[in-house]
From TrEMBL:
Protein name: Reverse transcriptase zinc-binding domain-containing protein
Top-level taxon of the source organism: Eukaryota
Pfam families per the UniProt record, alphabetical: zf-RVT (PF13966)
Every Reverse transcriptase zinc-binding domain range: 4-65
InterPro entries, sorted: RVT-Znf
Length: 158
C-alpha cells in the first residue's frame, strides 16, 4: 500500500498488521509470554483475540468494515476469513484510481482506529461505537485527502 497519505502512525500499524504477518501484540501472542492476560476480545467479548479475529471475524469489526464499505459505495461480503479479507484489501488498493487512493487511506485509518479502540478498552476502559469511529475516519480522510481525491471523499460525506 505504497503512496498512502494516511497518518504515519496509521500506516505503521497497518504495515504491522499486513506485511509482517501477525506482528501486532494481540492477546494470543501476549499469552505466549504472559499467562495473566485475559484472552477475550475486548471489542465483542465473545471470542479469544487473535489478529484474524480482531481485524476480520469480530462482530464489532465486521460492522466497521461494512459501514466503511457502504460509506465508500463498495461491498464487503467477506466470510470472516483472513485470506479473503486480504484479497479484498489488495484488490481495492492496487489500482491507480482516485477510489483506490482513498481506499488506502480509509483502510490504514480503520486498522489504526480498531487498534486504538482495542487499547482504550484494555487500558482505559473507554469505548466508542462503530458509528463514531466511522465518522472519525471519514473526517480524517477528508482532511488528509489530496486535491484530486478530496471531491470524491466530500461527495460521500453528504
Amino acid at each position: 500500500m505504497i503512496s498512502n497519505t494516511a497518518r504515519p502512525k496509521a500506516v505503521f500499524i497497518m504495515w504491522l498488521q499486513l506485511q509482517l504477518q501477525d506482528k501486532l501484540l494481540t492477546k494470543d501472542r501476549l499469552l505466549k509470554w504472559e499467562s495473566k492476560v485475559e484472552p477475550q476480545c475486548m471489542l465483542c467479548q465473545n471470542e479469544d483475540e487473535t489478529r484474524d479475529h480482531l481485524f476480520v471475524k469480530c462482530a464489532y469489526t465486521r460492522r466497521l468494515w461494512v459501514g466503511l464499505a457502504t460509506w465508500m459505495q463498495m461491498s464487503y461480503d467477506i466470510g470472516g476469513n483472513w485470506q479473503h479479507h486480504l484479497a479484498w484489501v489488495l484488490k481495492n488498493a492496487k489500482e491507480k484510481t482516485i477510489r483506490a487512493q482513498i481506499f488506502k487511506i480509509v483502510y490504514a485509518e480503520a486498522v489504526y482506529a480498531l487498534w486504538i479502540e482495542r487499547n482504550q478498552r484494555v487500558f482505559e476502559q473507554r469505548t466508542n461505537g462503530v458509528d463514531r469511529i466511522i465518522r472519525t475516519i471519514a473526517f480524517i480522510c477528508n482532511v488528509r485527502a489530496s486535491s484530486k481525491t478530496s471531491p470524491l471523499v466530500q461527495s460521500w460525506l453528504v
